[in-house]
């Protein structure tokens, strides 16, 4: 008999932007996410904005949980809703990479950078994709563009060195590794990789010094 008290309207209930019919409808959906989004859009005037937030949060959660296929579906849902943003395409690219969909990832990264030239992470990911697919020339194109910037990262320089090394352009590889080393001098991996490059060049002494330094850093 106490259930009647739940139907008594208060000022707080009246300020909620959903009708009572909408609230009842949501409860019947029992957590069906897409149904919630569609219902919210249909039954409220401000639904489009809040629906975007719902889908964005769900996509980010799925991505963080490693459910990349489902995350892609939700990012595509955002695009269908008219929210074509560089960061959406970038996240699609990340998820596609994790799913082994390299062609789709490449397309998404290119779209992201086309929309936002400041999103250099998309260019970096394109470079890594090219290295993984044994396309060192393309990798150099992307990573070389990043290396020309004043705020170039260690990772871009290191992987640029890897790309040059794969093409046996050892002098440029050494240059890139040394620039990376100037940023992160205590990272053993770059010393080791530089050692292999020196070894390929026939510079045994330099190679030994690099390997020795790498071992010292790994013991710390």
Q: Can you give keywords for this protein?
A:
single chain, 220 residues, mainly alpha, 75% helix, disordered N terminus
List the topology elements.
Elements (H helix, E strand, L loop, with lengths): L10 H5 L4 H10 L3 H11 L3 H18 L3 H13 L5 H13 L3 H14 L4 H13 L3 H12 L6 H13 L3 H14 L4 H14 L2 H16 L1
Helix pairs in contact: 2-3, 3-4, 4-5, 5-6, 6-7, 7-8, 8-9, 8-10, 9-10, 10-11, 11-12, 12-13
What's the oligomerization state? single chain
Unreliable stretches: 1-31
Gap between N and C termini: 71 Å
Task: Give the number of helices.
Answer: 13
Which of globular, elongated, flat, extended, rod-shaped describes the shape? elongated
The secondary-structure element order is HHHHHHHHHHHHH
Number of strands: 0
Helix content: over 70%
What's the average pLDDT? Answer: 84
How much strand?
under 5%
